[in-house]
Amino acid sequence: MVDRVRARDLEFLTAETAETPLHNATIEIFDPGDSGFDYTRLVDLIRDRIAFVPRYRQRVQAVPGHLAAPLWVDDEKFDLGFHVRRSALPRPGTSGQLLELASRIVSRPLDRTRPLWEVYFVEGLEDGRVAVLSKTHQALVDGVHTVDLGQLLLDTQPTPREFEPDDWEPRRAPAPGALVAGAVKDAVTDGQTVVNTVLGTSRAVLRTADERTRGVRSVLGAVTGRRPKSRGVIGGELSQQRRVVTVETCLGDYRKVRKVHGGTVNDVILATVTGGIRSWLMTRAESMGGIRQVRALVPVSVIDEELEATSLGSQIAAHFVDLPVGEASPVVRLHQVSYSFQAHKETGRSVAANRLAGVAGFAPTTFHAIGSRVAANELRRGYQLSVTNVPGPQAPLYAAGAEMLASYPVAPLLPGHPLVISVTSYNGGVFYGITADRDLVPDADLLGICLREALDELLEVSSAGRQRAPRGRRTGSTRSSARSSARSAAAKPRGKGTSG
């Protein structure tokens, strides 16, 4: 049976460039304890579970002449050791060193000639911890046919579940002649094949033309001395390098704010993001008089018969929120964000957070991947920032007996969007993953500190006797001191996870 790449997945393959590698990543921190969790155990664990996601042993096979959409075919030379890699930090590895390694790994596109995923086992972290960094292409995980591999590797008990041995043997890839014959047959019997082919080819041609004209514009700009107009602080032309920043906070703090001011934990998280971006812009000496709102896309889980349900039993839709970054009061910011989501709740389409958290396995990795797909599909809507928040289980999970301490989502950047924020709650913690363009957002670590300050500000107005954090525009010397503190904080571990 021919398994062609679907139109939606083909768009992600054709839209990818060196400046916009379209893969989702996750950084997970583990405490091996006495489990013996090491690289070999991780390879064995993946070998044991990979049968549940057949797509992870398939590669993309193009059709000669691009007569039809490419196919998913078994990788006859599938090498698990190529996809599961071993790395290490100089002991004792700091959080900053881990994030620098992660930044370099997520900057590199995946090899198109092999299955589109990689996993890195990182040793040498301080306190005997290890990290597992995974990245998977957007075309691979759609939540319908394939979930993220990370969802299948974790168990609720230290003793791993046992499965029947996997006797997988790759099917031989079709010969070029068979590919052409199949393309002609599908074109005759299935009109959608022609539509998908035209769509993929046209996008590739337009992308190539845009890259060429971009080069011409750069030369003309250098000759005339003109610079392209700025697209604002959360917009611009991306480089090929990324910076990853992580922040760990306590779920109990968000529940405390919710209890005092109402709303949901999601509202408090969005208000924290709003306050964090406001403070970050002020440290950059941005004029808040001209920036009142930041248009954010927040993928939400809904009940909708018109949308395709994921294999997790939910549909994911785009919800747009104007984050009131120009508002000085943290309480007013929270109420404005809550009001935006209240209208969504009253439609009766929203799905409760505890339902998502109760999905089997560690579903946040899959939901973040779907959220990134939604963000890519809605680029034409002109939003400035994507924020994906996924609730996870509030009990410890284990990989081959090692307890997972933290899980940080790392979403891909889209054209013109040098910043994206993803959030996962797990076992009493709320973990932020910030992905930023290394050139356009060199102070991404400072944004991480501002997120902490924003949460502290909300906690302050939720309890008496809490000392107020200094707010307002920083002077040049204060701003320099803040950047220095950010660099120092990025190199120090916080709590039981990684932060930057």
From TrEMBL:
SUPFAM superfamilies attached to this UniProt entry: CoA-dependent acyltransferases (SSF52777)
Q: Where is the composition biased (Low complexity)?
A: 477-492
Q: Does the keyword Hydrolase apply?
A: no
> A Pfam family name for this chain?
WS_DGAT_C
Q: Where is the O-acyltransferase WSD1-like N-terminal domain?
A: 8-269
Q: Which domain of life is it from?
A: Bacteria
| Every O-acyltransferase WSD1 C-terminal domain range | 313-458
Q: What is its EC number?
A: 2.3.1.20
Give any GO molecular function from the UniProt entry. acyltransferase activity
Known catalysed reaction(s)?
A: an acyl-CoA + a 1,2-diacyl-sn-glycerol = a triacyl-sn-glycerol + CoA
For this protein, the parts annotated as crossing the membrane are none
Q: Which family does it belong to?
A: Belongs to the long-chain O-acyltransferase family.
Disordered as annotated region, ranges: 462-500
NCBIfam families, A to Z: acyl_WS_DGAT
Instruction: Report keywords, A-Z.
Output: Acyltransferase, Glycerol metabolism, Lipid biosynthesis, Lipid metabolism, Transferase
Q: Does the keyword Iron apply?
A: no
Q: Which biological pathway?
A: Glycerolipid metabolism; triacylglycerol biosynthesis; Lipid metabolism
Which named protein is this?
A: Diacylglycerol O-acyltransferase
